[in-house]
Amino acid sequence: KALAKSPSDDAIRLELAKRLYANGRYADAAVHYTALLEKDPDNSFLLGNLTLAKLRLADWENFDALRARFLARLDASDASDRARTPSPYAVTLISADPADCYRAAKARSTSKMPMPRAPERADLTRSQTGKIRIAYVSADFRAHATSYLISELIELHDRSRFEIIGI
């Protein structure tokens, strides 16, 4: 009904296509994905979902070309497009090549969890005592197996050469 009121609203058409696909109405979803792709031909999400819909329908017309376009977009797409790439599992349905599956997983994961910037280097000042400082960091310095297991290790350090800290 919403699409009938606003036939040019791509957001409504996209939601309808996703709902149709989720409900197993792949042919209807493919019609809407195709219409959306005419306006945005390099959209990874649309390419991937149309490819999946055609795969489920066993519609092989132009399938290889569509599949190739989608796989080419895995590397070429920008960050916002990668976030909309079909899941890496879905890509295994499109391609059995492990390299393609890896690229899809990498595209999806970097869009969801970008690489953090390199940590800034700490100001490393020498110990006043000349000893090497070692810090053991754990959330389990309490009545916990880790504490019992590491206690002897900490006790065995040569205190004349090492300054030991537990955090």
UniProtKB/TrEMBL annotation:
Top-level lineage group: Bacteria
SUPFAM superfamilies per the UniProt record, alphabetical: TPR-like (SSF48452)
UniProt keyword Chaperone present: no
Keywords for this protein: Repeat, TPR repeat, Transferase
Domain O-GlcNAc transferase C-terminal span(s) in chain numbering: 126-164
GO function terms (MF aspect): transferase activity
Pathway note: Protein modification; protein glycosylation
Pfam family, one: Glyco_transf_41
PANTHER family: PTHR44998, UDP-N-ACETYLGLUCOSAMINE--PEPTIDE N-ACETYLGLUCOSAMINYLTRANSFERASE 110 KDA SUBUNIT
Name assigned to this protein: CAZy families GT41 protein
Record organism: uncultured Alicycliphilus sp
